[in-house]
Structures are given as C-alpha cells and as structure tokens.
Fold each of these.
Amino acid sequence: MLVHTIAEVREKVKEWKKQGLTIGLVPTMGALHSGHLSLIKKSVEKCDKTVVSVFVNPIQFCPGEDLDKYPRTLEADEQLCNGAGVDIVFAPSPAEMYPDAQMLSNDFLTYIIPPFFYVNKLCGKSRVGHFDGVCTVVNKLFNIVQPDYAFFGEKDRQQLIILRKMVKDLNIPVEIIPCPIVREESGLALSSRNKYLSENDKINALALSKILFNIKACYNNGITDVDALTETAYSYLNTCHNLEYLEFRDADNLEEKQTADNNTVVFIALKIGNVRLIDNIALS
Ligand code: AMP
C-alpha cells in the first residue's frame, strides 16, 4: 500500500499497535535494488508489519551534491515492495516532511546533531552536515512509524554506527538491526548511485572491493600493521581514481587504528569522475 501522508501512516500504526503487532522500518531513498531488498526481507521475516520509507531527504545533501538528479523510481520501488510482502510504502513529499520547507537551515528546523567525534571523519569530513540530516530524518521516521526494529545496511557503516549512538544516547525504543553488504558477483557493492557509472567506470569501480578484499586477505595472513596494509592498496589505483580516504577504524566508536585487529573496519571512499563511491569491510 502506497501512502504519501504522515496521518495515514499514523492511523495504520495505531491499528497495528492496538493488535499488539511488531513493526519493522526500512528507511531508504528509493531506486531500490537487491541491497535494499535484503533489508526488506529481513524485516518481513522478523516483524508482523513492515514499512519501507522512500524519501530523498533534502537536508542530508550538501550544496553541490546530486539532490536534483538522484534517481527516483517510485513505481518500480512500489512493485518491488509489494512483491516482498511490505505493508506500507511511505513516500512523503519534502513538504510533508518539512512543512517549513522554504527554510531548511539550522535556524528554522530542530536538528539532531550527532557527536563531533563521530562526524569529523570519513564521509562526514567532506559531507559537512550530512549526518545531521540523516539523524534528523531517521528520528522523524521513528516518531512517525514507531517501529520496534529498524533495518540499516553495513554499506553505510558510519551512518549505522552514528544511528546506533543516537538511539542509545536518546533512549529511543527502537532496536537497530545491521544488515550485511550485498555485492554484485564482481564484488562491487550495490548502490543506487551505481546508475551514474558507465561500463568503463564500473570496471574502475572494482578497485574499491578489490582493495578491501586484498587487505582482508593480508590481515588473515598475519599482517596487522596499518601502514603495511594501506600500502597494498596502491597497485589497484590508476589515474581514473580520486582516493578520498582509506582508513582503519574501530567498529564501535570509529577511533583510528594503528594496528588492525578483529574489531577493525577498513573504510574507503573514492571518486570516479563525479561519482563518489564508498565501501567498507570488517576484518573480523
Ligand atoms: P539508501 O537508499 O542509499 O539511503 O539506502 C537505504 C538503506 O539500504 C541503508 O541502510 C543502506 O545502508 C542500505 N543499503 C544500500 N545499499 C546496500 C547494499 N549494497 N547492501 C546492504 N545494504 C545496503
């Protein structure tokens, strides 16, 4: 069932809560692919009712980013959700989510601001304010849907860690369920932004997963020195790649690691032309 208003969602949620049913929420920006589908399947399996939100959230895009050209495929998304047993596809307009939409700034909207330590690194460094936008919209969705469980992909692991922290710090009664990264057979992590890649770009994009898989193989062979592990990446990079970061960080609090261990995650971001791609791998 496709729903565009908060009032309609609230009405359904009220009914479900009365019946004592559990609710799962899968927040997305749409252009759904098998990665999203894996989250949806988990929710349908675990919860009595599943809500998938499809909302390209303007406040998590920084100036100059791809807000306007971000792929929007609501009809196909709805079909995929119906086939997967989703109860509500919640696709609000920006005006529905932000009625004071003409003033999407810190001065005119109550924001959730995650701790600086979690956002001053990795994606937060180049995407200033991005995680404020993510936390704010997820918090709004939590208040609208009141889910028991919310499903997030490890593909966006910094986001997952920050949202976990938000839920803990603010005592939000939602359990965050992490879901593993879904990849193409080639190794490329699925992403709605892969639609921007040409065939040639896609070949170049394999560098991300190749670098991560190789680092994990070296770690499994006993190499734990982060400088030595980082060194192994460079042979996969060519002039098409603009490396933004390759960092080893703690899986719980994102602290930097000098020596890799089983609680280390390797994070990578690089640009191919104008397309920015991210990936990560846990060394455990
Ligand atoms: P997005 O629509 O890009 O905001 O993503 C919505 C949710 O799907 C987020 O929790 C993402 O981490 C998750 N997701 C996106 N791509 C993948 C993937 N390849 N594997 C697993 N989860 C994913």
Amino acid sequence: MAVSVALDVDPGIDDALALILALRSPEIRLALVTTVAGNGPLVMTTRNAVRVLDHLGAAHIPVAAGAAAPLEKPFHGALNYHGPDALGGVDVPERRTHIEARAAHDLLFNFAAAAPGERILVATGPLTNVARAFQCHEEMPSMLRELIIMGGAFGLTPFGKGNQTRYAEFNIWQDPDAAYTVFHSDVPMTIVGLDVTNDPSGAFDATDLARLRTGTSREAKLAVTLVNYAISRHEYCALHDPLALAAALDRSLFEFATGHVEVVTRDDEQRGRTFLHEGAPATSDRCIARVASGVDGPRFKRLFMSRVLEG
Ligand code: BDR
Ligand code: CA
C-alpha cells in the first residue's frame, strides 16, 4: 500500500521537480503540502506550490502556508538561482482560490497523529515549520515513521561542502536554530545533503533535458521548462529536492553513514555548518540519523525519467 507523505517545501525549481516526482510515484500518496520561506518569500513559495499542484491536476491536495521567516534570524531568499518568481519564470497560472486556514505546523502534526508510526514527512526547505511543529507538539517526533530532510553538507564525499557559504548548505544556513531543534529530537531521521545532491552524476545536463523533451505529459513539459531554466543559467540542474524525495521511494539508491548530527547556530562564518558524529549511540533526545554518503546518480535519473515520461 502507498505510504502517506507530506512535503514541506519552498518552491524553488528543484522543490517543484520534487512535487512532480511525488505526484507520479505510486509508492507514495501525497497527502499534504506545506510551505516555508526559503528560496523565495512565503507568499511566493506558497503561490508556487499551488501553481504546480493545480497545473498537474492535484488541486485536491491541501496546501498550508507556514513560517514567513526563520525562528530567530532574518530571512534571505535565493532568487538569484531560482529566478524572480523562484520558479524560473514558468508560465503557469494559479487556479485555486483558497489554501488551508490553519497553520502549516498544526497540519503537519495532524498528519503525523492520524497514523502514528506510519507516515513520512519530507522537508526540502529550511526546517522552520518542522521545528515549530515539534515545539508546539512535543509528541510529534515519535509519531513520524520518518523525517527525510534535504539539507546539510557533512564532508562525507568531495561534494559535501557548503553552497551558501564555504561551510553551510542553504536550507540549514537559512534557519540553523530550527535545524538544532530537529536534530535534538528523537525523530527517526534521514538526511540527504550536498554530499550526494551535488554529485554531478545525479544532476540533469543537456542530454537529460533532450530526453525530457520527448515527454508529452504535463509533468514532463513542466519539468522541461524548469530544468531548461536551470541549465541555461547554471550549466546543469541540481536535483537536491527530488533526491530527498527519492529516499522515500527507493532507499537502495543511497549509501548511508549513521550517528548524531550537529549544527552550528552561532552567527559567525560557521553558521549552519553540519557535522555527523559517526557511531554515537542513541539517547533519549537524539535518534541515530542516517546521512546519505553515496548515491547511484544514473539510476536515480532513470527513475525520475521513467516516472515523468511513461504512463
Ligand atoms: C537546497 O536549497 C534550495 O535552494 C534548494 O531548493 C534545495 O532545497 C539546496 O541547498
Ligand atoms: Ca528547496
């Protein structure tokens, strides 16, 4: 049976590609989408999530807006990478007129509490909503079957270096205080960070784009526009967030290292830096995190292609 998944996103080109992959994957049922300020301001990321879902015939999936700014630090976007609308200027209108009235963190709790131990939350933006949910509902971490995060750079591969600063990955750097809260909970956690998502073998290049262009589905066409925007400006299209989603689809795509994870919350040059203490034992306030240390990039790309090109 398909596993119920909630996606907490900040679309964002690669968040939108993760939504596309989620909607085309029979292993999961996308039950809830929550939005957070990250790649763009909250109004923009919420609008983008709605635009993508509605365009792909998924207007029935509830969308709730979450945090407009990190827990303690000021907000910084990434429009320089994702374009002025954070979605590469894609021509997709917004159809639905209402989003959920309740706050994202409460709906995330309801999602987990509806079936304790069974549901997966995938977070592909800053962790502000997840931290708020954990702060407001202390029992929530133990209710999730798993939290999968796109974030961090752990030095586990040559690609595990910062992309926002020399040390830090964007999502974690944006709200390191939220990451601290999440890392110090007992949630079963899998982290897919730059160590694998910046591995070029798992990114789309011009050859992949040409293959995507053969697709006739709405999903394929939207993916072409998004990937084309990224490639035309950055040479290749990194698939950070789809890779995190892929951990919920096929675990065998990855290798993992395990231990405690730590984050620097200080506002100095190391802000947002993440560490893995391999082999550290589980404690009452710390689970053993699994941090991706290798990926079969070509197999992942074949998975993505098959999902949007077939059927
Ligand atoms: C992460 O930062 C964002 O810009 C992307 O959407 C991704 O979630 C990569 O560091
Ligand atoms: Ca993202």
